[in-house]
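Intended use. Records such as the 1-deoxy-D-xylulose 5-phosphate reductoisomerase entry shown here are meant for training and evaluating sequence-to-structure methods. They are not intended to support clinical decisions.
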Amino acid sequence: MKNISILGSTGSIGRQTLEVAAANPEKLKVRALAAHKSDELLEQQIKQFEPDIAVLTDKDAAKRLADRYHGKTEILAGEEGLLTAATYEGADTVLGSMVGYAGLRPTLAAIACGKNIALANKETLVAAGSIVMEAVRKHGVSLTPVDSEHSAIFQSLRGGTQKEVKRLIITASGGPFRGKKRSELKNVTLAQCLNHPNWSMGQKVTLDSSTLANKGLEVMEAHWLFDMPYDKIAVVVHPQSIVHSLVEFCDGSVIAQLGVPDMRLPIQFALSWPERYNYSFEQLDLVAAGNLTFEAPDLEAFPSLKIAIDCGKAGGTLPCAFNAANEEAVYAFLAGKIKYLDIPYITATVTAQHNNVLRPQLEDIEATDAWARAAAKGVIAKL
């Protein structure tokens, strides 16, 4: 039995993680839940899974929940409560599915307490990959990826040794605008951006998928997860989202992991590893899936991918600056303050102005995140 703490339980990944837990009650026990401010949904989750503790980082939402709920689960609030959930002694595994940079500190706290990590929060490694991976090594914990692409690589790498790897090949669906030229993207709407052809995800990740910024973040994440240089990481567009990623070896063999586009599969693998549990959800039918196609990404129409990879190659605090600027740009677009093509313009402008710190400590990462957000807001205000 694995005892799990879920950070971000009311988001898309968190909700699907709870579906996996419900399908495996003899193997997974939910001991702690944490969310931001969705008190009604968290209350439903508490009633179904009866965790020891539950947290809302929004203190007003936590008070509303505490006033209504009178069961055995302890209700906690704020960042202190979040850190309690991340380090809870009753849990041995922490699934981190908080959105954005906010996942960094609780992930580091969980690692420091010896928790194994199932990581869905790619921004944690993008912003502070060297710090996080050093902490993983220092404390002797496992870090298993939840993203479908990284789960696929994690599994496919079992086909050979590190020195035999020629390339990691990360697949991208291409999002809702695959095949569009840059000139056709000037006036796209939020509704169009969120209409992903294959995946059901939260707004931030779905919007990042439409710009291909998400794929740039995944390249940076893969660099840290698999200790792989950037010149050995490639991106291909695969519209069907059946092949989740591939590993090419020195002898020409290419090993891939396939499955339906359903996040419950990589979530369950991350929680079950090194075992595999029986899977209770939809299975892949290759005949029904039909043709599988691949194409190169269009970096002119979707420059966010190249901007992100260039920042990753530069290293230091530049990936953190990219991530912070992209988050602020995405939130501005979601709020209707900027146009779609302003998103890569903002990240390019902010990262070009950044004074890179090549060997950052945690305080450098935090300073960069704050600076880049302020810089991005300054660019947004002038648009």
